[in-house]
Amino acid sequence: MIDKIYFLNLDSKIERWNNLRKLKDLYLNDIERFPAINSVENPMIYKDYGLELNPVGFAHTLYFSSFYGAVGCYLSHYEMWKEIVKNKWENVLILEDDIHLKLLKKFLVKLEIGKGEYGDFLKKYDLVQLSYKRGFGGTEAYLLNYKAAEHLIKNTHNSSIFKNSIPAEINTNHFISKGYLKKDEWDWNVKNSIIAPVDKFIQYNVDCLQSMNKIKFKRSRKVYLDASLVFDSVIETDDSYFRKEWSKEKMEKFIKSEQYEWWKNK
Question: For the whole prediction, is pTM greater than 0.70?
Answer without folding.
Answer: yes
